[in-house]
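Sequence in, structure out. Go.
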Amino acid sequence: MRLDDEQESSNIVDARGQRGGRGGGLGGLPIGGKGGMGIGTLIIIGILSLVMGVNPLELLGAAGGGVGGPQVGQPQVAAPAKPAALSGEHDRFIAKVLGSTERTWGEIFPQQVGDAYPQLKLVLFEGGVNSGCGQADSGMGPFYCPADRNVYLDASFFDELARRFGAPGDFAAAYVIAHEVGHHIQTVLGISEQVHKARRAASQAQGNALSVRQELQADCLAGVWAHHNRDLLEAGDIEEGMRAAQAIGDDTLMRGSGRRVNPESFTHGTSEQRMRWLQRGLQSGRMADCDTFAARQL
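Output:
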């Protein structure tokens, strides 16, 4: 990506050094025993939330395990963070990509929604963090918290994206950020709250199906952002994004972890679906074409 001339966002805050997580990955979560969760389930949840879901605590709740932390929609006071002192390649890349999303959605929102775009803040952390949705560890990956409207990101995730998921490249990393911004847009438009309410009244399979549509819509919105920034893209960038989308489909992740592929347990969509909706946003550039909830076929 050609980001040299892109303005860095001022909405980056630094929570690094504030270990707000559960200290030791999965150690603070109930594992096994009555009412607990098996270690295999926790590993899968960690993988699924790692690849660009909403707050990972919501996935744990959907899986039937008690977390003891707050649920989405019950804001908690997060540890104070300071404006980020950008240093290093990762920091500046993140700031430039977020700046690009602010510029792009600042133009698109008045045109396609009729309102001004309310910017979010992106919180950089290491190891663990206190968010408005509760505590989270780096192992849960990047997430958006609708309670405080922040994106939380440990920059080491980009190394995981390249090493574990075989999806290196700057556009693949930018896709991660743009997807989380897509969840912010869903929150601003009231979509996230509607999905949250519907999931509470639905069966687990029905709730998972709603989650898939929500995640695919965020993929499509990331594609809309990319459509309006084609001048920043270089040869091979779109292929990088498609490889990332393919690598993080629920079916691919389940096969990679040795699990039987069970469509009823999908929460993010198949590799094919994720690529299709990212491509749809890339080709269209219109938010209206990202209505996954009205789509008969995903």
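Check: The beta strands are 12-14, 82-83, 121-124, 128-131, 134-137, 143-145, 150-153. The first strand starts at residue 12 and ends at 14.
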